[in-house]
C-alpha cells in the first residue's frame, strides 16, 4: 500500500522540505522545477500536472551527472524492510539513472538498479527493496551524455517505507 499515510515518508518536491533528502537543494546538478519552467521536457510531473514540482538534471550545467544522497538509514532486518518507490523520467537518447547503496563500512557505492535510454519519453515508476546489516545511504545518480535540447533525467515522488 503506497498511500501517503504517516508510515511512508514522501518527497514530492512541492516544497524544499523532505526528511529523507534533507538538503536536495544543495546537490549541484539537480534542479527543482516544474513543467512550465521553459527548460524542456518533462512538461509535467508524473500526474500530468504542469505546475507541480520535481527534480531534474539542469541542462545548463556543464557537468552531465549529479548525485542525490539520502540521510543515513538504520540497518534492515526481518521486521524493518526498506522499500523506496520513485517515479523517474529518462530521456531516450542518452539519459541514465542509477540507484546505489553505500554501506557505512565501505567506500564504494554498490549499484542496485539502473535504467538508461528509455524508448519513450514518459514517466515510469519503480520500487527497490534494500537489505543491509549496517547503516547505509542511498544515492540516486543521474547522467546525461549529451547536452542536446530536451535530454534530461528527472525524479518525482520518492517514497520511503517505514523500514528505511
TrEMBL record:
Q: Which organism does this sequence originate in?
A: Pteruthius melanotis
Q: Name one GO cellular component term.
A: membrane
Q: Which PROSITE patterns match?
A: MAM_2 (PS50060)
Official protein name in the record: MALR1 protein
The protein's matches in Pfam families, at most eight in alphabetical order, are given as: MAM
In terms of InterPro entries, this protein maps to: ConA-like_dom_sf, MAM_dom, MAM_domain-containing
Under PANTHER family, the record lists:
APICAL ENDOSOMAL GLYCOPROTEIN PRECURSOR, MAM DOMAIN-CONTAINING PROTEIN
Q: What is the lineage of its organism?
A: Eukaryota, Metazoa, Chordata, Craniata, Vertebrata
Which top-rank group of organisms is this from?
Eukaryota
Q: Where is the MAM domain?
A: 9-164
